[in-house]
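ok new one. same drill as before - structure tokens go in, u give me an amino acid for every spot. 740 of them this time. try not to just spam alanines like last time pls lmao
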């Protein structure tokens, strides 16, 4: 077993090394003009400042919760909770640097090379910093907690107050996951408010009120929007998916220690297999992402030509490519060239498929290694059953991504139909977008549900948990491609704000549209994995306290009423998020209008005060993040101690059912609305141009989608995960200290 742990640490070390290599390579590329450098510096500084201010709130909250867990659950639980928060925050810090250094270099790659392939390379290289950080830091911390807790030894620990007993490994892994979850909750809620309040204000003030381009530098909201893309779509997504990655193997181990205790060999195998899958997924991420990064590098080839043609083609001696004389008036010239890429989305899909295939193969080998030589009669098809369950999770990940792309990409009919409806007005577009979002839910939940059912038939409750691990196994690729989106979006904003050539903007616009789809796919994967994880965690929750008589009418009523409470909590949570975003957006819009009224700003002779808008966006985001976050974290405790664990079980189920549907609907409806606007701006809708009434209708429709996809959709999944993780850590206390 020591060799296995060393091997996993080895894979993590390779990921850290490649992360550093890509970052050094990224920074070696030129940032472009002075104006581009200045604009990128504002974005970088704004994102960094926001995180620092956010940590002033997060750190005290983390310390208070950590002390509470050590006092009332288990002495070391507070330390593992802090470690989870530190791992998540560190991954965010590093990933953010990849985004904020990669954006301007992506713009400059489009400007200097004019090549789609080289621009994709820089954007994906920036995204890979996030992608490698998520599984590397998540798995590194998880393995430390697992080893330090004694593995599946079943050692019992006690709280400092009350001397409450609990299994050390399970409580510390749960609190490690919860530490990641708390950071993710704050990042998602605050980041969503920041970016969408700025985006909505920028669109309404700029496009609708003053006919300004999306990233016109005169509109102060535009720079806050670019910063918001980083703090939400990069920082928020990193912490969200890192928490999911940690929660799924935690659920596997919780279930394994409930179901397989008594069979030491099977217990150990079922505990280490999810770690093997995640390590294999990390390795597959390195293969898939680095293949695309290296494939699209600058290339060289030797070309023979006449010496006279060589001199005529390259008259400036200082810039002539290297050449070797062949005699007889001919030379061999070293030409620099780039690959032709017609479909950027196909490049990113290739990385996904490569990663999925590699992790599936390695997962099969790993299953045979840990299960092949032991008794696996517990599983329907023997040792291969856990691998099939994991494979179903991998297939689900790819399938959910394809479904999301089908409903949100400019290549397919749903977005085309929505964009073509723009001349009919806002009401038609809003209604159509809502219909698209609602229709998209069924296909996604069928994929998730069928995978869960088959996995459960093969391996029982453990099968559902291992399918969740399979779905998240190559999450590094998903995060890399997802971070590609905000980097491309920022690159386009820098290009437009700095007045670069239209050809540059054409490349960045196309990448931005692809990025909108990759972001939607990333959100779809986050939602799908959250669904798997929450179901697995609910199963482990049921087994973590004495089983009640579920035929007792009082127990049935408790579960049903809890379900109603859970639905109401999620709906209220959604309402708060939407209300907070609009309130913050109105304040930013007023500031933008005030500054545009200053003499000289509209004429471009006076620079607006970007710092003021950034300060307003950050203050609002931090002000509005506490109450929604606390609602999710405290809801199990508020219900559990008065009414017992059965009401909390119902609440968790009600939250899950509501949140999964709402998250898929909002993510896909918002993604479709965004790309319908983008289709018009790219000239894909005949007769509709920027600034036209149809375009304004699409912009208004997109503002509806902004809150849906980047605030509500992404926060629903983290809300239900946080509540379920808290409940798992407190189940026995709910049972022992209930009032009714």
């Amino acid at each position: 077993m020591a060799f296995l742990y060393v091997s996993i640490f080895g894979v993590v070390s390779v990921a850290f090394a490649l992360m550093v290599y890509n970052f050094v390579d990224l920074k070696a590329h030129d940032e472009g003009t002075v104006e581009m450098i200045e604009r990128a510096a504002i974005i970088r500084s704004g994102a960094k400042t926001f995180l620092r201010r956010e940590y002033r709130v997060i750190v005290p909250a983390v310390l208070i919760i950590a002390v509470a867990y050590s006092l009332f659950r288990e002495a070391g639980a507070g330390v593992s909770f802090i470690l989870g928060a530190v791992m998540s925050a560190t991954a965010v810090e590093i990933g953010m640097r990849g985004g904020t250094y990669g954006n301007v270099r992506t713009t400059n790659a489009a400007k200097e090379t004019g090549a789609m392939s080289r621009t994709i390379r820089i954007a994906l290289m920036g995204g890979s910093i996030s992608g490698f950080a998520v599984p590397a830091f998540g798995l590194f911390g998880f393995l430390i907690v697992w080893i330090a807790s004694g593995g599946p030894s079943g050692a019992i620990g006690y709280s400092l107050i009350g001397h409450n007993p609990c299994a050390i490994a399970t409580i510390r892994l749960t609190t490690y996951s919860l530490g990641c979850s708390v950071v993710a909750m704050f990042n998602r809620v605050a980041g969503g408010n920041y970016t969408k309040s700025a985006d909505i204000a920028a669109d309404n003030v700029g496009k609708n009120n003053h006919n300004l381009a999306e990233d016109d530098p005169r509109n102060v909201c535009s720079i806050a929007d670019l910063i918001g893309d980083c703090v939400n779509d990069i920082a928020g997504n990193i912490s969200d998916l890192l928490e999911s990655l940690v929660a799924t193997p935690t659920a596997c181990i919780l279930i394994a220690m409930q179901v397989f205790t008594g069979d030491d060999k099977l217990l150990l195998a079922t505990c280490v297999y999810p770690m093997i899958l995640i390590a294999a997924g990390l390795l597959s991420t390195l293969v898939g992402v680095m293949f695309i990064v290296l494939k699209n590098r600058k290339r060289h080839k030797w070309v023979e030509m006449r010496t006279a043609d060589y001199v005529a083609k390259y008259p400036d001696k200082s810039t002539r490519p290297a050449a070797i004389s062949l005699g007889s008036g001919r030379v061999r010239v070293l030409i620099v060239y780039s690959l032709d890429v017609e479909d950027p989305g196909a490049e990113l899909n290739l990385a996904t498929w490569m990663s999925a295939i590699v992790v599936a193969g390695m997962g099969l080998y790993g299953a045979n290694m840990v299960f092949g030589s032991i008794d696996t009669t517990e599983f329907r098809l023997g040792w291969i059953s856990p691998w099939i369950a994991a494979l179903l999770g991998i297939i689900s990940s790819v399938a959910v991504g394809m479904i999301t792309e089908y409903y949100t990409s400019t290549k397919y009919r749903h977005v085309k139909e929505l964009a073509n409806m723009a001349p009919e007005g806002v009401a038609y577009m809003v209604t159509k977008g809502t219909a698209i979002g609602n229709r998209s839910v069924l296909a996604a939940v069928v994929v998730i549900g069928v995978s869960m059912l088959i996995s459960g038939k093969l391996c029982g409750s453990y099968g559902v948990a291992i399918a969740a691990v399979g779905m998240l196994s190559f999450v590094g690729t998903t995060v890399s491609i997802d971070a590609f989106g905000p980097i491309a979006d920022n690159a386009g904003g820098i290009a437009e704000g700095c007045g670069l050539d239209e050809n540059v903007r054409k490349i960045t616009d196309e990448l931005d549209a692809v990025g909108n789809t990759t972001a939607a796919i990333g959100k779809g994967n986050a939602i799908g994995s959250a669904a798997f994880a929450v179901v697995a965690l609910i199963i482990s929750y049921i087994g973590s306290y004495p089983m009640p008589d579920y035929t007792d009418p009082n127990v049935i009523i408790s579960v049903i009423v809890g379900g109603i409470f859970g639905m109401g909590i999620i709906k209220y949570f959604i309402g708060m998020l939407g209300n907070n975003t609009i309130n913050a957006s109105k304040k930013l819009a007023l500031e933008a209008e005030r500054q545009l009224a200053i003499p000289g700003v509209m004429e471009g002779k006076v620079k607006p005060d970007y710092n003021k808008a950034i300060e307003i966006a950050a203050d609002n985001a931090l002000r509005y993040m506490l109450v929604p976050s606390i609602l999710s974290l405290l809801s199990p405790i508020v219900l559990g101690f008065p009414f017992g664990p059965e009401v909390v079980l119902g609440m968790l189920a009600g939250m899950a059912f509501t949140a999964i549907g709402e998250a898929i609907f909002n993510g896909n409806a918002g993604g479709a609305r965004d790309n319908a606007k983008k289709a018009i701006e790219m000239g894909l809708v005949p007769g509709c141009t920027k600034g036209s009434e149809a375009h304004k209708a699409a912009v208004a429709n997109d503002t509806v989608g902004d809150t849906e996809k980047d605030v509500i959709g992404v926060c629903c999944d983290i809300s239900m995960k946080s509540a379920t993780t808290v409940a798992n850590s407190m189940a026995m206390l709910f049972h022992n200290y209930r009032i009714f």
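The chain has one domain: 2-298+338-736. and btw Residues 2-298+338-736 form one domain.
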